[in-house]
Amino acid sequence: MDQIEQEPDFIALSRQFKATAMELISVLEQKQKTGGRTKVLLETVPVHKLADIFVASFEISFEEQLSMLDSVDVKVRLSKATELVDRHLQSIRVAEKITQKVEGQLSKSQKEFLLRQQMRAIKEELGDNDDEEDDVAVLERKMQDASMPVNIWKHAQRELRRLKKMQPQQPGYNSSRVYLELLADLPWQKASEERELDLKVAKECLDIEHYGLEKVKQRIIEYLAVRKLKPDARGPVLCFVGPPGVGKTSLASSIAAALGRKFVRISLGGVKDEADIRGHRRTYIGSMPGRLIDGLKRVGVCNPVMLLDEIDKTGSDVRGDPASALLEVLDSEQNKTFNDHYLHVPFDLSKVVFVATANRIQPIPPPLLDRMEVIELPGYTPEEKLRIAMQHLVPRVLDQHGLSFDFLQFPEAMVQLVIQRYTREAGVRNLERNLAALARAAAVRVAEQDHSVPLSKDVQRLASPLLDGRLAGEAEVEMEVIPMGVNKHEISNTFRVTSPFIVDEAMLEKVLGPPRYDDRETADRVATPGVSVGLVWTAFGGEVQFVEATAMVGKGDLHLTGQLGDVIKESAQIAMTWVRARATELKLVNAEESNILEGRDIHIHFPAGAVPKDGPSAGVTLVTSLVSLFSHRRVRADTAMTGEMTLRGLVLPVGGVKDKVLAAHRYGIKRVILPERNLKDLAEVPAAVLSGLEILLAKRMEDVLDHAFEGGCPLKKYSKL
Ligand code: ADP
């Protein structure tokens, strides 16, 4: 032994063994707080014996014990012992780590459990019984009452069973519950009772709520008549098309009233995502049902009148095409099993009466348009607006502001002034807004005046002794008793204003500001040569559009501004070419000077510069403004025009004639130049408007020019070109 102890190998081995053993002992010491004796052993006992003692105390396999006994060489035994001690040390460490982890988890769930117990105790103490379990029971009852079809009931049951197995804190619990709530809330069978449809009553109902619109009302009555004869008839979906504020929405709600059904409006403006119609699949976080299902949930019956508002404002992009989803909705064959992605079970939409509204027909995809019957509402003449205002808007506005005719009166002449000076729209929405502004101003004055209104005699008699008493500082008055004789009616009388306000011109200016429009506008704008008045068609109905042309030194270029589209730009080029080709005949240039553009550029501008414009119907207006510019003659201020022009000078018919003529009438224009082939469209224009206008028909551009200038156009005979 003495010899071996001197060997460097042995010294190294024993040092390693001691270090490992020391480590093991300190770990054990930490765990069991005993180890003092073993530490002493480590210092006193020779290393080779120590190895034997350690190994003997471990639980090792039979083979390992054998191999230990088998190693007679001290060094070999020492190295084997070191290995064993190290293994033991590692296993203790791993075990320790695991226990730490488990302990952490345990304490967290224990904490939660404890808190939950406390919460329950607090709730019980407060008498708050909305326990999760109760909630589920309520939900189940609601589902039973929802009278779902059998297959859907089975599906809902499956989902409910899943929900019952889940813990409220578990992810997915909430979404599952919200889903089941929707299933329970949807009107699977619940329908509002349809009363026997009386067409006379329906007609009265439409007449009471809407002035004029005879043709539209007639069409609605026809629609209702068919429904009466064949309740399950799958007639086309009505689609009201017209500028804002012409009564599309309120007509739809009148249909609902006539049918005795509930009314729900679904706004489709700006819907670009198919999921807005059809819903998101439930796998997405925050998924929702589509707007239709949501609307049905809101309205609570399966047979409402559903208004698909602004159906022309849906667009398609990468997220799908809402129009194709709408196709399914409006198709009576397919909508029996409408499939909402969120709902995941088919819903029967066939009992819903769909009505749609749109500002324009063009943006509606043709297949969708094919399923609808378009009813156009062109906009109102000032006379119609006046009647609507006097019969419908004024009473409604007064009512909305808590006023009556006793407080405020709108003379007809003043309403007419509001129409002429402050609104220039096809519908009546701005008019209603302006009337509301006047009513608000009057309401302030009435409310202010309340204090100065003399009290009725009874109340004076009652008030005076009390008041006198107070003033004299007598005994305290605890309660003011109003005698039985002074009933409510008399009290309200005490607030009566002695004389009602009558809206006058001064009030108009004060509340609505200086007049926004006047009939002189066109005259002012066409005061210089180069400006002509066109009629265009926009989503807000017809509009008057000025075209300005000017010339400056240049190289013969044509500049166009005013946010123009390709079609209108081409129209400008055609106009320029036509004028250049006939410059001599039109006496725009001397015979020797053949090029009208010699040394000059032409700039054509369409105000308002911020509004995008396109379409071919400005052709004749462009030519007129160019001829006016080159001939230095002013265009007649009382004349507006519309029409597409071919390169050869033929005037082609255009769309939206009715709206355009109404717009001209609104602007106070007296003469309108129209393409000859649009004559048939005039049948739709109200006679009252036509009687105030001189309609001039044009077959060729020369006719237009002849009508547009005072004293006609020099180009009498038609060009040979
Ligand atoms: P739209 O849906 O066409 O934009 P609304 O139906 O909302 O227009 O109508 C705007 C307002 O004008 C409503 O208060 C409506 O009652 C009123 N209105 C429109 N046309 C008429 C009419 N012919 N008679 C009575 N009120 C009308």
TrEMBL record:
A Pfam family assignment: AAA
UniProt keyword list: ATP-binding, Hydrolase, Nucleotide-binding, Peroxisome, Protease, Serine protease
SMART domains: AAA
Active site: S617, K660
PROSITE patterns: LON_N, LON_PROTEOLYTIC, LON_SER
Residues engaged in binding ATP: G242, P243, P244, G245, V246, G247, K248, T249
Membrane-spanning residues: none
Protein name per UniProt: Lon protease homolog
Naturally occurring in which organism (per UniProt): Salvia splendens
